[in-house]
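protien #1 (seq + structre)
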Amino acid sequence: MLRQRTLKTLTKAVGVGLHSGHRVELTLRPAQPDTGIVFRRVDLPLPVDIPVSATAVTDTRLASTISNGGAKVMTVEHLMSACAGLCIDNLYVDITAEEVPILDGSSSSFVFLLQSAGIELQNAPKRFVKVKRTVEVREGEGHNLKWARLEPYHGYKLAFEIVFDHRVVEGQRYEFDLSTGNYSRDIARARTFGFTKDVEAMRASGLGLGGSLDNAIVMDDYRVLNAGGLRYDDEFVKHKLLDAMGDLYLIGKPLLASYSAFRSGHALNNRLLRELLANPASFEMVTFDDESLAPAGFVRMARAW
């Protein structure tokens, strides 16, 4: 039986929110089988649980925000991406503010925290959302066209393409297959990025208040301003793929699917999940009683760097 995974022990981190700029403490704790990933706002007078789901997403402006009633947690995608990359099924995320800390702007710090706590197999079958029919969402036309697609695939692979009118970014495309790639090495270190020309508008809207060269790649009209440069030559598209893995994992279970996208973002990724769920014939829930029949990427424990 291919089994579910949680943590062996709890682990903690402290940081600031990328958009709020507020200090936040994060505690990752083991959870029982079939719990899923649950964010818990422990700073409120009565703690509020916010289980992840596609329909819990209530805001996608520059990040994915999930809500339960009046309680919300912003910028969940990097932590969710790390959970997807390490195949974590069940986890409690205790948080003392309304935004997940940005840490270094990638998911590598979350990968380190999760692996440091240790990953434990649980006595329950791992449950997948298996895509049976192609589902696609599109937005805009011509130079404004964006699209995202899920297709049947025995495993989990992603392909992402970006196009920017900028001499550093321009066009990039990257493919990643969980069965043959190494998430920690190939994807996790890619940082979020932005342009100096957009910073003033973002901050006027109450966004990006915690951003700095320590937690984001920043570019002016000509170059990357970070002293250390890039971590990957194609770090920009790898970060978009990292985000997509986190956005898609908000469905609550790992996908068996091939995802491809052109200039997609948080909003379109969530629309894609909702479109999938709105068409019951396009997916089914599956488990693997014989783990040798499961895709290799979900069987082996994730490798470190």
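ok now protien #2
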Amino acid sequence: MSIVQAIIYGVIQGIGEFLPISSSAHLIAIPQVFGWEDPGLAFDVALHLGTLVAVIAFFWRDWVNLIYSGITNPKSKDGKLFWLIVIAAIPGAIIGKLFEKQAETAFRNLGLIGTMLIIMGIILYIANRKYNSKVKVEDIDFKRSFFIGLSQALAIIPGVSRSGITMTTGLFSGLSREDAARFSFLLSTPIVLGAGLLKLKDLVHTPISNMPSFSIAILTSAVIGFLSIKFLLDYLKNKGFGIFIIYRIIAGWTFIIIYFLRK
């Protein structure tokens, strides 16, 4: 893999992991569209480690407070939120493990990816238009957090988007746009951390010759991921998800057309 390709993959991961456009869809589609060799599972782990660094770096103060309160005072707002995030992460982790093989084989289909981009774009449009409220992350309850976490399991299908489905469900649950995004980002931390730890062995056996491109990809995805989080939280203070909905539909139809042209 060239350094340029590593940077491109890092940028795609950093943007797609946190904006509701599906990083997995684009990471699968890009090598198919341009004829690049599939970078493999170890490289995917490296990219996710980069975005894990991004979300921890951005929310480290929040996580210090959440973990401390969760252990010392679980009935406080921060303590309660910590355990709600832990519980909400469980369904996605279980489904991800059960369908891991399909995610690496059958689901890597441009037709399926394009279809899911469009379908979830339409659902996000409905949520964005009708279900924006003023519920704050600090006031989230078990029912809301559970359904947001359960919806995260659908992100095993490329094109759904982990951030997209959790933000959409957050809107349907009554969260404001900004708080739906914030909870989505907090919820991503244990999921990405757990997946990274489980697959770390694949990264350990990476040949020394691949380390420069891997290191650049991790750094790029971390920096771009951090900037993406900041951008979206600022953007949603005054605007909705319209621009991402339009992009999903355009990208979805593009992938579907490419899929049928190659059959």
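The two ends are 27 Å apart (CA to CA).
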